[in-house]
Amino acid sequence: MGSPITARGWGWRHPGRVRWAVRDIDLTVEAGERVLLLGASGAGKSTLLHGLAGVLGDQEEGEQAGHLTVDGVSPADARGRSGLVLQDPDTQLVLARVGDEVAFGAENLAVPRAEIWPRVHRALDDVGLDVPLDHPTTALSGGQKQRLALAAVLAMQPGLLLLDEPTANLDPAGVIDVRDAVVRVLERTLATLVVVEHRVDVWADVVDRVVVLDSDGGILADGAPSVVLRQEGTRARLIEAGVWVPGYRPETPAVSARPGADLLHAAGLAVARTRRGNAVLDDVDLTLRGGEALSVLGPNGSGKSTLALTLGGLLRPRSGELAARPPLARGAGTSPAGWKSAELVSRIGTVFQEPEHQFLTHTVLDELEFGPRRVARQDEAEVRRRVDPLAERLRLTGLLKANPFTLSGGEKRRLSVATMLATGPEILILDEPTFGQDAHTWAELVALLAELIHAGTCVVSVTHDRDYTAALGSRVLAVDGTSATLEVAA
Amino acid sequence: MSVDVLNPEITGKVLPRANPLSKLFAAVLITVVVMLSVDWVSAGVVLVSELLLLPLLGISVRRLLFRTWPFVVAAIVAAYGTALLADKTGRVLFELGPVLFTEDSVNAGLAIGLRGLAIALPGLFLLASTDPTDLADALAQWLKAPHRFVLGALAGMRLVGLLFDEWRTLGLARHARGVAHEGNPAARFGNFLGQAFGLMVQAIRRATRLAVAMEARGFGAGPRTWARESTFSRIDVVVVLVGTLIAALAVTAAVAAGTWNFILG
């Protein structure tokens, strides 16, 4: 049976913060209701979800206001009544084998051994994960891992399912698999559902109710999806909050690709993750030109990122040819992997999926100046000439003294792109630049890249995002299995 | 390359079915006996027995050498060093300038080398035939090790595997920023420290998330049950008997040959 939820003036403040992460929440969710929880970045959706899961901790770990109950008791006392699935598939799996992973929660609730294994089989069945019990959890795809995480909470037989952006890191096929598994589970267990997700269209048809949190506290809108998502007033406010409302795409400037000089040429290129490893992608033929965009599309694990790293001069080609043409090489040799750091950063910039991986210093300003000053060794005037307009254009001027690690997700993304642009590369490569971004950050990124393309930069993106690809007027390299084919421009 | 610490390659057919505790007992017993005496007879008996049992592991000689070569090299170096530096008593076997080997010094070197190998091999047997999850189950269920500790260690090991990947990604990500493996040793060392710090930040972040996920699944709330029963079978009786037999044989042979050389005696 489903667990009901009540919140009365509930709020939570993390220790040492002035601002409440979430506050003034008054909410009643009936047993078995399915709720999609929306709100701008930083509106406190995850905090509410963690509160419902009872994992926010005690007074030392934060300050609580008002009351929050699941099944009529405080969530911390209702352990096992709720099951939480998080965004990152890799940091919520505990054990090495699939069966053990599912059994873990039931063991913690002291379920007798004889009862655990039937529960494990039932849960794996429910999520449609058809692998042996001793299958290694690391050998699963992202979508399978998320379904495993779902099965792992189901074995506790929770009355409340809490999903925190469960599909944000998945490819389109994985997204649908996970969504369908959730629906099947709800139909059988009649559990209550609260799901947080930026991409509303995935869940809009599945839920009975949409609740929107206001960034300034309280609830902005609450009602049936058809009402909240379609009514003029609430729809406009959702769009303003950066929520991906179905049927809405942020406006972006039109891109007119004006292909310029040939920069980088690949012929029969094979790429591998390690020097002696197997090729994950074979026979890639490709020419990158200035002033155009290319999107590399395909399922997760198909070698897209490895190709991007190779094009970016960070990995050596396994075999085949990858040659910089004279306008790019400018006397630095034809093989990007052989370039010195200073040569590389002024020719090709690679923006990684996780911005934090690329932060090197303690302030935003140092971060921006690092490339021009410390790597390319430009003089002070040149550094200023490059960094100041860049900070201005990417709205980082107010943050120059801030520590990069303390920025918001959107700010981190802007900074990581800016650090690459500071050395003025001809080619910019981005790995999954729009994963988990709200509509504002998305639109901002697209506008910036469109401007770069217009100014003659070549932008290569590894992505699943068809809207993004269309907005940049990208050519498409479709990767499938071990082959890659260039799609004819639509 | 992803390193899956919790799913090591388990080889052989018989030993993986034995309870980790009986294997641990046999390995510790043999290791202790070899460590108690520095002589080539007891070490030789143990080493020969271990080599005879190697087929049980079901790995080819090539893979075996691949996994153990550091130990072999260390043993040879230790043996040579000891033979070179030990008391030069007994008959002279070889002399060239300052290099002098005598009967006794070579005996001492041989004992040290064989002993090193004999100590290393039981560990290899244990590692190659034991799944970490089974070991955790056995420790918690039979030795009553605290489950928070045992499962925490297990989950931590999984993170270590992920961190290998993370280290690689960090290296590439920093290279893209222009921090490269070029320049003088000091710059390289600085870069290494920077990357290590980045890894630490990510490790803490991941560990925090994992802890939340485990807590949300009721971990640490109270008494728990174990889905997998850690059991003993006839194989375990054999493992313990064979381990004891090897240990006893080694002591007996060394004492009978008059070479038993107790380290504290």
TrEMBL record, chain A:
Pfam family for this entry, one: ABC_tran
PROSITE patterns per the UniProt record, alphabetical: ABC_TRANSPORTER_1, ABC_TRANSPORTER_2
CDD domains: ABC_cobalt_CbiO_domain1
Domain ABC transporter, first and last residues per copy: 5-241, 264-490
Record keywords, A-Z: ATP-binding, Nucleotide-binding, Transport
Cited InterPro entries: AAA+_ATPase, ABC_transporter-like_ATP-bd, ABC_transporter-like_CS, ABC_transpr_CbiO/EcfA_su, ECF_ABC_transporter_ATP-bd, P-loop_NTPase
Stated family: Belongs to the ABC transporter superfamily.
Protein name: Energy-coupling factor transport system ATP-binding protein
Organism of provenance: Arthrobacter subterraneus
Automatic annotation (TrEMBL), chain B:
Subcellular location: Membrane
Membrane-spanning residues: 24-57, 64-86, 106-127, 237-263
Membrane topology: Multi-pass membrane protein
This protein's record includes keyword Hydrolase: no
Keywords per UniProt: Cell membrane, Membrane, Transmembrane, Transmembrane helix
Cellular component, GO annotation: plasma membrane
Ranges in a coiled coil: none
CDD domains attached to this UniProt entry: EcfT
Signal peptide, first to last residue: none
Protein name: Energy-coupling factor transport system permease protein
Organism in which the protein naturally occurs: Arthrobacter subterraneus
